[in-house]
Amino acid sequence: MNKVAIIGVGHTKFGKLEDKNLLDLLCDASLQAIENSNTNDKDFDAVYVSCMLAETLNHMTGIASALVDRIGLIPAAADHIKNGPASGGSAIKNAFYAITSGLCDMVLVAGAEKMTHITTPGSITSAIATITHHNAERIHGISLPSLGGLLTRSYMEKYNVPKEWITSIAVKNHKNGMNNPNAHFQKEITLEKALNSPIIADPLRLYDTCPVSDGGAAMVLCSAEMAKRFCDTPILITGVGQATDTHIVYEREDLTVLKALQICSKQAYNMAKKTPIDIDVAELHDAFTILEVVESEDIGFFKKGEGAKAAFDGITQIGGKIPINPSGGLKARGHPLGATGIAQVIELVWQLQNEAGKRQVQNAQTGITCNFGGFGNNIVSILVERM
Amino acid sequence: MNKVAIIGVGHTKFGKLEDKNLLDLLCDASLQAIENSNTNDKDFDAVYVSCMLAETLNHMTGIASALVDRIGLIPAAADHIKNGPASGGSAIKNAFYAITSGLCDMVLVAGAEKMTHITTPGSITSAIATITHHNAERIHGISLPSLGGLLTRSYMEKYNVPKEWITSIAVKNHKNGMNNPNAHFQKEITLEKALNSPIIADPLRLYDTCPVSDGGAAMVLCSAEMAKRFCDTPILITGVGQATDTHIVYEREDLTVLKALQICSKQAYNMAKKTPIDIDVAELHDAFTILEVVESEDIGFFKKGEGAKAAFDGITQIGGKIPINPSGGLKARGHPLGATGIAQVIELVWQLQNEAGKRQVQNAQTGITCNFGGFGNNIVSILVERM
Question: Which of B63, B95, B234, B281 sits 20 to 30 Å CA-CA off A225?
Fold first, then answer.
């Protein structure tokens, strides 16, 4: 099996980008990644594009083919990979397979979402809610934030956890985002302000949720044996996992357990021959603050019920025992759906290359992601290491 | 590199299926394929789903995760692969990579489209036209049938070909569809009737175009070394190719040449160590009659300009030198977009297993497909052989 290296990354600013359309975002991130990779000949075998809502929000299909043409990569094979908000993780996974198979040497992965031009209230939430179960959830008005509220309440009651422990994650991630020039929000917030922000789905409040963002992220992958030709500090993808769970959330034995994450992170750890204790830095999918809590447990950092306390106690801060979301996470970096899974891995690349500036985690050698699709019914986990 | 075998296939009726929704079609085809494969334990590593317009026509995202849950394959990894009308080919390609990488042993590929419930005139054509170039084509009213008309006229003029040679393909494919119980249309048509059918985009007429269909198709793939455990007559995928071309059709040097097909079919031939002369049967993407003509040339069966005459002379009939679309093709089997690329390979499986009934091509040992995305800007070609 060929080993796979990341040799270049590209990341647009995330936020409200009025002068960019979906294809612009894919192109900007891709061209940055290609330039960063020093692969001057652009001899790509394949391109994988991740985007959740191109049809609905942008009235576009065939975006992978369009990208390949616009950045001059014809005749590279091009596919659009969809797995809801975990589309980026899935795109990386399939690029990883393409290279490990030995059939592709050089692959571009690019993800983007263009969302902020949609201003009708509720329409973004409705578009994302197409991923819930139609008969059991959606027609009854269930949206992802409402499931986030339900999970927050269940967790608080089951583990007797005060809301401020959970919401402290928003404060941490905003603080980290301060030092990320690509972040949607680059300002600190106070716990008091977050706890008193408007209710979205009780007890979930505005500052417990990620924003709607535009943005693009891209990376160049190649076989590890070629990597040093292009890049002094390639980062290896050594573990990849993906698992599904019930579509209908109420069918799960325990709402506060993300079985798909337990399974897929174990796949990634096993492939890389690592355990949670080996991880120096993680990028988790904090679309809602409660998700970072639960994910930090199910990915193996904390026992069930102890994630919120750990965050409140600073264990997941930069400088803490296991820094989570030094990028600012979805909460502060922003959440352009199709870009998020790629941006998570890019942050780890920068951390492992010691290129993360003021948000650097010291001596980070190994990192892992959780990219969360649906409401936890399709999760991708990617483990990266210094070469 | 692991070799890849097809050990089970499933294919719903194609046509106007009023009592089935998109997920029903995916499930029906998948359960058939799983049953056909004798993999009783359902121990699947991954599921790939192809569908072009789930968001627009069916208001669904996360269809791969939904399928996995509904047919009991949790926690299998699940991704939705999009490449316009070539989504099925792309899904098979990515499943092929997953197995050749050695990281997956057993993979389900399922494709479907549910279209006929949309009855507003032009809305299906508009939805599909989202794959054309927005600024250069779409805003000027260009749709896929209009490009089909342009290609037909260009070909007729360049090669001095009468329309009846091209339209004879519709007659052939309807005749083949007569013997395909899954076909949308199972009735013969006359050349005279086809030539006098209503104009769609001059000189393209109604009977030169495929219908709008509902339908699903699925297959189970596994590593070749496992295949004989499940199936007496597994079929090997020995060649896979995919290539892109310009998004804007007018930017191509010659409208009548499908460069992407020339490239991707060559990739498939080279991988399988075959040439066009080795092919016993082909399933090409006759969304318009002219496409079968041009594809039959660019996939290497005929010189440029000779494909229409060859079809008119019966060379591509069952019993001819190189039978094309014994299934009835998109014209008669129908064209549920996301299912088509999978249905093409399934027809070849049946032909190679000598299971094609009245439409059997005698002693078929090797077959190839052309699955055409966009207007030829992203084409997938898959070559299969008896084991």
Answer: B95
